[in-house]
Amino acid sequence: MKNKTTAAILALFFGGFGVHRFYLGQPGKGFLYLIFIWTFIPSIIAMIDGIVFLTQSEEAFNLKYNRDYVMRQTYQQPPQIVINNHVGQPQSAPAPRQEEAVPENKVPKKDPFQLSADKAYEEYDFEGAIRDYRRSLNVDPRQADVHFKLACLYSIHENTDTALFHLNKAIENGYYDFDEMDRHDHLSFLRSTPQFFAFKSNSYRLPGEPAPEATATVPPEETLELSDDLITRIERLAQLKEDGILSEDAFKREKAKILRS
């Protein structure tokens, strides 16, 4: 188990030598710090590392540097759990009530990519979750919850710009749980960045985005009822794009034809 306070102290006082990276099991990065120590750049980066470690939550730190421990703890928990709307937050499963059962024909459909992405996220396969969530957006790019989950995943990977892009898209498509954005553990890194501060100060919009009032009179885009056949055909197109057979423009044209049919 790596301790985030220890990592922060090592980064702040000995970070120029890459000591904190050796401690975190990243010898490759540690040697890079040693090679370029004469430039003083490693010392500056180490100071930033130390501040990030101190501001991170324990869960976010453990997810990145103690992943094996987190996964062991997860699989040792009692099986009687469900995952709420935000993946990764277990809660006790309530006893089902017969009168609240949703008729089978009323259950909203999820495309297979989103289902496999949710499973990968629950199992801490973050790369697999990102890949399948992006494929799910190829089927329907207006899924606010998928954009929010991608923002969380890219925050874990410390990819600030992409995380903010998807968080902005989540809000554009109707995700308004701002309290969750301010407390979700998987967004802890993103919240520590100056870009997020500017995003939040700009009423949870990226700089340069139009104010909500400017687009309030525009009617919302019609929601399509996607049949299994439509989803399958779009998935095939998405796979062709992933394989490099279709260009982005060709994918969009063919997808538009399918949706109009």
TrEMBL record:
It is a multi-pass membrane protein. It holds the Pfam family TM2. SUPFAM superfamilies: TPR-like. One of its GO terms (cellular component) is membrane. Residues 85-109 are annotated as: Disordered. It is found in: Membrane. Keywords: Membrane, Transmembrane, Transmembrane helix. Residues 2-51 form the TM2 domain. InterPro entries: TM2, TPR-like_helical_dom_sf. The chain crosses the membrane at residues 31-54. It comes from the Bacteria. The keyword Membrane applies. This is TM2 domain-containing membrane protein YozV. It comes from Neolewinella aquimaris.
